[in-house]
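Fill in residues.
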């Protein structure tokens, strides 16, 4: 923590469970990368209070010195090791995590995206083992209630989010972090669309610290009708597994076969718990219909009942 406090430019990310994470660039040459990362996540500057989560430090990779890195970080293990990036940490003993980046790749949008994804892997691994994690879905809120609209890539979730009326709060169109808050409720945080940065060279931005209680999960299907159907817990569990699995490779360290088996078992436990707690639905949606009205009847049952009763009056 003293090392973190001694840095000039440092930021914090506080999530719904009350854990605060620190992010800082140790080498001045990485300030530009850190500024872009902060812009995309809207992280505030560190307010001076103690952090109770991981502290991540970005620093320059020493080229051709792979064998000397354990001396640079005594007692630390590497989870990612390549010609351009190393990730070092000390399991169970210290909150410090060091991300070494190759200066020569910082002008490459794709590599910057890769580093940003790496910087979130420790968060995802922590929350994955605490009943949550990064979920592949669009994220929106209505009347303070959050919903996820999940679908495979390029099958309409971003378009569906964009079609929601303006009175909806449209938070993220690709991924969200699902977390259990101290009161035991599930909440979701929006995350940037990293692929915008990688592919379209566009820097999207969202307030990652903001969160909403998760009221429902909808699994999108293109259809000739607009309809919502409640899923059984067993079927919902399968869909939730797919929603989490979509980002396991991109946002998760998987060390070996034993680790992979442990992750798969935890994924099943998390999906069962989430399916038993949060209502899940199939959302059939047409290209030009008003599918959101079906969703609003779920989120606003009293309003839907009143409208039905009013329509039945003579």
């Amino acid at each position: 923590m003293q090392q973190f406090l001694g840095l000039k430019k440092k930021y914090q990310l506080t999530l719904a469970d009350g854990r605060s994470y620190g992010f800082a660039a140790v080498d001045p040459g990485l300030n530009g990368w850190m500024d872009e990362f902060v812009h995309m996540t809207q992280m505030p500057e560190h307010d001076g209070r103690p952090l109770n989560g991981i502290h991540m430090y970005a620093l320059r990779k020493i080229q051709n010195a792979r064998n000397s890195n354990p001396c640079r970080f005594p007692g630390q293990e590497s989870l990612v090791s390549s010609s351009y990036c190393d990730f070092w940490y000390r399991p169970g003993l210290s909150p410090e995590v060091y991300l070494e980046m190759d200066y020569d790749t910082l002008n490459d949008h794709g590599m910057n995206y890769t580093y940003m994804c790496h910087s979130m892997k420790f968060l995802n691994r922590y929350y994955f083992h605490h009943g949550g994690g990064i979920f592949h879905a669009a994220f929106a809120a209505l009347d303070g209630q959050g919903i996820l609209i999940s679908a495979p890539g390029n099958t309409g979730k971003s378009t569906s989010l964009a079609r929601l009326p303006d009175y909806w709060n449209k938070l993220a169109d690709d991924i969200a972090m699902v977390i259990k808050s101290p009161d035991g409720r599930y909440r979701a945080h929006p995350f940037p669309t990293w692929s915008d940065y990688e592919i379209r060279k566009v820097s999207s931005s969202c307030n990652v610290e903001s969160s909403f209680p998760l009221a429902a999960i909808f699994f999108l299907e293109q259809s000739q009708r607009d309809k919502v159907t409640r899923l059984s817990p067993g079927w919902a569990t399968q869909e939730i597994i797919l929603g989490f699995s979509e980002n396991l490779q991109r946002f998760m360290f998987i060390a070996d076969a034993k680790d992979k088996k442990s992750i798969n078992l935890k994924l099943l436990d998390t999906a069962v718990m989430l399916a038993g707690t949060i209502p899940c639905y199939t959302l059939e949606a047409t290209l030009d219909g008003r599918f959101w009205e079906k969703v609003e009847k779920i989120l606003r049952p009293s309003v839907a009942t009143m409208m039905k009763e009013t329509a039945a009056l003579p």
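The two ends are 70 Å apart (CA to CA).
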